[in-house]
Specification:
421 residues; alpha/beta; seven-stranded mixed β-sheet; four-stranded mixed β-sheet; 13 helices; 16 strands; 17% strand; globular; binds pyridoxal-5'-phosphate; adenosylmethionine-8-amino-7-oxononanoate transaminase activity; aminotransferase; pyridoxal phosphate; PyrdxlP-dep_Trfase_major
């Protein structure tokens, strides 16, 4: 039996209707921006394996440090114990984070980092004897697939079976020039209820909503309103964190800073699953008490795994390097050039760029997972480029280490794909 057949026997893949999509391409190796399949075909990883491997796959500087760590300390319980990789990570990351972040809470993935943020917010008010039950989140938000994260996510087409079991969430339209007044008005009404514990948002770019981009000025207004109403603000930077928007964190585009920031995806440079919920001293202080029950009794077995922490430290060193900071600017400039070139194509409805993220909407009607999407996906793979269209949006979020010619290849294939629609 080959890999595909063996896969079909026992494996259940994420986000998949197996009856319609039985086959999964076996990838046996990855290096730099390239993914290699079992037949030796290679594909440019045009979306950095869901925004994780931003320094390329198996970066030698990351791999060597993780291997070293593996010989020293592989895993240890993080309640009652601590260890150098976690400490070093905190000392490296806190100065890079937007001002006000003081404490780091570990978990395993983006969804759990959001669940932790929500639990922190709810218990923050509970501990203060002023219970608040509601969360405000954007329409079309995506914050993950666990119950808390799913509750605040707005892309609910697939949440049908769970709708009766979700948290109480008020939905806010994502602001733009035309609706900002209305959005402020509805937000004001929500805040005036004095029932809102937290406002959660993906700053600047809503990844799963087909890389929808919105203005930092509008977001700033909403963050300020929340803060004035004493509502905790949660920036879900699971996708936007670590340089993707052109700054290390998207929150840096605003002057008002969140109380809580969620991080995962490229936190460990794509080497291991790990997440952080970072918070301000103010949040932490609400839990710091003589009473044991005011503590935050949430924990995951692999919290702060030393190997994952080591990968994160090595990733941060790369992020801060001159080479990567320059690469981020270069990719951004080249995206803008390509955008200028492609935006008037008659099959292109709209284009947008933030940092290293480039998206274009096709001028066709189709379902989110319709057949055109599958045809486009197949076309990209045939051309040796891994891109995953979201509905009628084609986008790329390439690894920072991509070369000029590899990036050119992505643009070329994007342009060519317009001929098959
Ligand atoms: C991917 C993502 C999540 C969920 O992270 P997982 O690791 O897949 O659970 C949450 N929020 C945002 C903004 C994301 O992009």
């Amino acid at each position: 039996m080959n890999f595909k057949e063996r896969d079909r026997k026992h494996l259940w893949h994420p986000l998949t209707q197996h009856k319609l999509h039985p086959d999964h391409l076996p990838i046996v190796k990855a290096k730099g921006v390239w993914l290699y399949d079992e037949n030796g075909q290679r594909y440019i990883d045009g979306i950095s394996s869901w925004y994780t491997c931003m320094y390329g796959h198996s970066h030698p500087k990351i791999i060597s440090r993780v291997k070293e760590q593996l010989d020293v300390l592989d895993q240890v319980v993080f309640s009652g114990f601590t260890h150098p990789p976690a400490i070093e990570l905190s000392e490296k990351l806190i100065p890079l984070l937007p001002p006000g972040m003081e404490k780091l809470f570990f978990s395993d993935n983006g969804s759990t980092s959001v669940d932790v943020a929500i639990k922190m917010s709810l218990q923050y008010y509970f501990n203060k004897g002023n219970s608040r039950k509601r969360i405000v989140a954007f329409d079309n938000a995506f914050h993950g697939d666990t119950f808390g994260a799913m509750s605040v996510s707005g892309l609910s087409v697939y949440n049908g079976p769970f709708e009766n079991f979700l948290l109480t969430v008020d939905r806010l339209n994502v602001p733009d020039k035309t609706n900002i007044e209305t959005v402020m008005k509805s937000f004001r009404a929500m805040l005036d209820s004095n029932e809102v514990a937290a406002f959660i948002y993906e700053p600047l770019v809503q990844g799963a909503a087909a890389m929808h981009m919105y203005s930092p000025d509008h977001l700033e207004i909403l963050i300020k309103m929340a803060k004035e109403a004493g509502v905790l603000t949660i920036a879900d930077e699971v996708m936007t964190g670590f340089g993707k928007t052109g700054k290390n964190f998207a929150s840096e585009y605003m002057t008002s800073q969140p109380d809580i920031i969620c991080l995962s995806k490229s936190l460990t440079a794509g080497v291991a699953p790990m997440a952080l919920t970072c918070c301000s001293q103010k949040v932490y202080n609400a839990f710091f008490d003589d009473e044991i029950s005011k503590g935050f009794f949430h924990g995951h077995t692999y919290s702060a795994n030393p190997l994952a922490c080591t990968a994160a430290i090595a990733g941060l060193d790369l992020l801060c390097s001159h080479e990567i900071q320059t690469a981020i600017k270069t990719i951004h400039q080249r995206h803008l050039e390509f955008e200028r070139y492609i935006k008037n194509h008659d099959k292109v409805k709209q284009t947008r760029v933030t940092g290293v993220i480039l998206a274009m909407d096709l001028d066709v009607e189709m379902d989110r997972y319709g057949t055109l999407r599958d045809r486009l996906y197949a076309f990209f793979m045939e051309q040796g480029v891994f891109l995953r269209p979201l509905g009628n949006t084609i986008y790329t979020l390439p690894p920072f280490v991509i070369s000029n010619s590899e990036l050119e290849r992505i643009y070329e294939v994007m342009e060519k794909s317009l001929e098959i629609i």
